[in-house]
Specification:
Radius of gyration: 19 Å
Number of strands: 11
Oligomer: single chain
Shape: globular
Strand content: over 45%
Number of domains: 1
Low-confidence stretches: 1-20
Protein name: Lipoprotein
Helix content: under 10%
Mean pLDDT: 87
Order of helices and strands: HEEEEEEEEEEE
């Protein structure tokens, strides 16, 4: 009888493994504000985090630079094995902590979100928009943290939904 009980406990512990697939936002790292080097989101409900070979360059990065009289911010994540990526750009926009910025590509100097997903390129526009919110913007230590979401459309009219986005990165 003890052998059977022990066997049942082993089977139960294996079935509750930490390797069980998670779903939705449970798959994503928590939002932190310490420059931890994380970025993740859901793309059409599936968890996305950068990964793959670093040989061709970093799989994630953030920058904030003053160029041609304005500030430019970029955030990118790339999973090379699945050929999936997201990019967010704020053009000619000075960032302030606690502010929300629209992603809508309505003119040349506007902000946008884009994704490569299922071998197709998607981008925000005036109808399919999104937002990025800066929870922390520390210009002294180069830390940027926040959340984002956006809807983007491809040339065939298909829409991708990017949700539950979060990032905590050092920028250059």
């Amino acid at each position: 009888m003890k052998k059977i009980s022990f066997l049942v406990l082993i089977i139960l512990s294996l079935s509750c493994s930490k390797n069980d697939p998670c779903e939705g936002a449970d798959c994503l790292p928590a939002l932190t504000i310490i420059g931890k080097g994380t970025i993740a989101c859901l793309i059409d409900g599936k968890g996305f985090q950068p990964g793959g070979s670093q040989f061709a360059g970093p799989t994630q990065q953030a920058f904030y630079q003053f160029l041609d009289g304005g500030y430019y911010f970029g955030l990118s994540a790339n999973h090379r094995n699945s050929k999936t990526s997201i990019n967010i750009a704020l053009r000619n926009q000075e960032i302030e902590e606690g502010e929300v910025y629209q992603l809508n590509v309505d003119k040349e100097d506007s902000n946008f979100g884009e994704s490569v997903y299922n071998l197709s390129y998607y981008q925000t526009n005036q109808i399919h928009t999104g937002e990025i919110y800066f929870v922390k913007f520390d210009d002294i230590n180069g830390i940027v943290s926040g959340t984002f979401w956006f809807d983007a459309i491809n040339e065939d009219g298909d829409i991708v939904e990017v949700r539950e986005g979060r990032f905590d990165m050092k920028y250059y």
